[in-house]
Design brief:
With 292 residues, this protein is α/β, with parallel strands linked by helices. It has helices at 3-10, 29-40, 52-66, 80-94, 117-144, 166-186, 218-225, 232-245, 254-265, 267-288, and strands spanning 20-24, 44-48, 70-72, 99-102, 108-109, 148-153, 191-197, 210-211, 249-251. Strand 6 (148-153), helix 6 and strand 7 form a beta-alpha-beta unit. The N and C termini lie far apart (59 Å). Bound molecules: NADP nicotinamide-adenine-dinucleotide phosphate (NAP).
Length: 292
C-alpha cells in the first residue's frame, strides 16, 4: 500500500472496530489496561498470560462492558513454541491478526557482574525472545491480510542504563533495536512497528521481578520511593493513540520524554549521575546484605 494510504489508515480516529488484537501480559497491569482501551475501540481480543483464571475474569469484564468478542489463550511467553502457538490460535479463531501487543514482561534486579546468567536468560526469554517469536508468527498473517500493527512495550530505561537494573535494561535495549529494524523492514508490507516506552507505572511489576542477587530486594522498594507512577489506564490510552497514528515511538508523560532527551544529549552528565546512583545503591545493597 502506498505511504499516503498507510498514514490514512492510522490517522487519529482511524477505525479499529472489529480489528483482531492479541495482547500479551493481559492478566493485570499495563496489558490489562491496553486490552481495555482496545476493547473500548471495538477490537476483538485475544488475551494471553500464564494465569488462566485471572485472564477469564478480565475477558468477562471486557465482554460485559464493551460487548466485544474475547478469546483467552493461557500462554507462557518465555516459551517460544507457546508464543507462536498463541498467534496461530488467534488466527485460527478469528481468521487473522491485525494488532499484536507484545506487553508481557518482567524485571530483574542485581549488579551486572553478579547476575546469575540463568536468571538473565529467563528474563530475555520473556522480554525479548517470546516477543520476537510472536512477531515472526504474526508477520506472515498480517502480510496476507494487507497490513497490521505490532506494538512492543519497551521502557524509558530501555533508553539509558540503570544501575542494578542492567539485566532488565539490556532486554529492553534489545527489544528497541529489533523494533527499529523491523519497522524499516516491514514498512513495504504496511505493517507498523510501534515502540511504547512507559516510565514508572503503578502496577505489580516490582513484586513480580526476579531478584537475581541476594540483597537486591531493596531495589523493589526504591522504585516505589520514586512515587507510584502513572495509572496503567493512561498507558493503555496512549498505546491506542500510538497504534492509530502509526507512531515509531510513544512516551506517556512529558517527564519521561524529557528524561530520555537528557540521557541522549548529555551522556557524560548522565554517566556522572549514574556513578552517584550506583554508589548510593551499592551502599544500600551492602546494608541489606553485610556479607558483601
Ligand atoms: N510498571 C512499570 O513501571 C513499567 C515501566 C516501563 C515498562 N514496563 C513494561 O510494561 C510491561 C507490563 O508490565 P506491568 O508493569 O504491567 O507489570 P505486571 O503488573 O507485573 O504485569 C506483567 C504481565 O506480564 C505477564 N507475564 C509475565 N511473565 C509472563 C510469561 N512468562 N508469560 C506470559 N505472560 C507473562 C503477567 O501475567 P502472568 O503472571 O499471569 O503470566 C502480567 O499480565 C512489561 O513489559 C514491563 O517491562 C513497565
Amino acid at each position: 500500500m502506498a505511504k499516503s494510504s498507510s498514514r490514512a489508515r492510522h490517522t487519529e480516529g482511524a477505525e479499529l472496530r472489529g480489528k483482531v488484537a492479541v495482547v500479551t501480559g493481559a492478566s493485570r497491569g499495563i496489558g490489562e489496561a491496553i486490552a481495555a482501551a482496545l476493547a473500548a475501540e471495538g477490537c476483538r481480543l485475544v488475551l494471553a498470560a500464564r494465569s488462566a483464571e485471572r485472564l477469564q475474569e478480565v475477558a468477562e469484564g471486557l465482554r460485559s462492558r464493551h460487548g466485544v468478542e474475547v478469546l483467552v489463550v493461557p500462554t507462557d511467553i518465555g516459551d517460544e513454541g507457546q508464543s507462536r502457538a498463541l498467534i496461530d490460535e488467534a488466527a485460527d479463531h478469528f481468521g487473522t491478526v491485525d494488532i499484536l501487543v507484545n506487553n508481557a514482561g518482567m524485571g530483574i534486579f542485581g549488579a551486572v557482574d553478579e547476575l546469575h546468567l540463568d536468571d538473565l536468560r529467563h528474563v530475555f526469554a520473556v522480554n525479548f525472545f517470546g516477543p520476537m517469536a510472536a512477531l515472526q508468527a504474526a508477520v506472515p498473517i498480517m502480510r496476507r491480510s494487507g497490513g497490521g500493527t505490532i506494538v512492543n512495550v519497551g521502557s524509558i530505561v530501555g533508553k539509558f542504563p540503570q544501575p542494578l537494573g542492567g539485566g532488565y535494561t539490556a532486554t529492553k535495549f534489545a527489544l528497541q533495536g529489533a523494533s527499529g529494524a523491523a519497522r524499516a523492514e516491514l514498512k513495504r508490507d504496511n505493517i507498523d512497528v510501534v515502540l511504547v516506552c512507559p516510565g514508572l507505572t503503578d502496577t505489580e511489576f516490582s513484586q513480580h521481578s526476579r531478584i537475581s542477587v541476594p540483597g537486591a530486594e531493596h531495589r523493589q522498594g526504591e522504585r516505589h520511593s520514586l512515587g507510584r507512577g502513572v495509572e496503567p489506564e493512561r498507558v493503555g490510552r496512549r498505546t491506542v493513540k500510538a497504534i492509530k497514528r502509526g507512531e515509531r515511538e510513544a512516551y506517556v508523560t512529558f517527564f519521561d520524554r524529557a528524561l530520555v532527551w537528557f540521557a541522549i544529549h548529555f551522556p557524560a552528565l548522565l554517566q556522572w549521575v549514574l556513578v552517584y546512583i550506583t554508589r548510593y545503591r551499592r551502599r544500600r545493597f551492602e546494608e541489606a546484605d553485610p556479607s558483601k
